[in-house]
Amino acid sequence: MSAPRVFSGIQPTADSFHLGNYLGAVRQWVALQETHDTIYCVVDLHAITLPQDPAKLRRRTRIAAAQLFAAGLDPDRSIVFVQSHVPEHTELTWVLSCMTGFGEASRMTQFKDKAAHGGAAQASVGLFSYPVLQAADILLYQTDQVPVGEDQRQHLELSRDLATRFNHRYGPTFTVPSAYILAAVAKITDLQEPAAKMSKSSSSPQGIVDILDEPDTIRRKIARAVTDTGSGIEADETNKPGITNLLRIYSALAGETVAGLESRYAGVGYGQFKKDLAEVVVAALAPIRERTEKMLADEAALDRLLARGAIRARALARPTMAAVSDRVGFLPGARAD
Hints:
Elements: E1 5-10, H1 19-32, E2 37-42, H2 44-47, H3 54-71, E3 78-82, H4 88-97, H5 102-106, H6 109-118, H7 125-128, H8 130-139, E4 145-148, H9 153-170, E5 178-181, H10 215-223, H11 241-254, H12 258-264, H13 270-296, H14 299-328
Parallel strand pairs: 1-2, 2-3, 4-5
């Protein structure tokens, strides 16, 4: 029996992944290679739903891909590619768009949130149809499971609905995907605003630990992280959100329970705790940064890896798209490679 197939993607909209991206998704994608047939994508088509500088987008796409490989994605075990290199993503999006209700699409959380932030009048049609492209990404590969956090289940529902709708109207075509709930990873919050999630869009630079930060930068950010009144190293979401966040980070990277850390640091001041935490973070991230820099130093080799991934992805995508085209009634014709 073949392993279940998973698909996931990450946007190339920053110069580095941050610690929340790594712990919440990328590190777990690496682990899934042991148990699943894994397909991972740098979703550059999704990125342009908001304005992007073309040169930065190209650079950030390579940076994102290099970080995925550097973090442990194996191009021999996983298909890793760039979304725009597989044109079937946009072909399938059009077909699925024609099966998606306007009201259904307008209720999608991502559109409502981003439109509210920038104003609905300024939102693009691409932003509106973003969830349909997301559904096409998943369904194109006959994906069995989609890695999501417990709070992201709703993002998968449109994909499931469209797969079921298409299968009912045209006959069995798509695998109806289910959620693969990632291991619970406590939310990593802003080092300067511990009540807010660590995020490129809302955090200050000092509030984010980037995967590609130099060791001294990491040490400085941890040293300046907001703590709380009192001196005890104790997890208390309400009264000590700053130290609680630092304990979560330590626990996730060192593989030690928060309770164990509380016991070990009983009677120890914040300064020593932060110094120790900084070394744990540096030890975990420095090898990824070094491997990323090495890959980016040879762009031709990186591009060859991504081209190889795209060829493997298209080998799966083309049969799906051919079946879709036939079932909706498109006239067969020659297809360019």
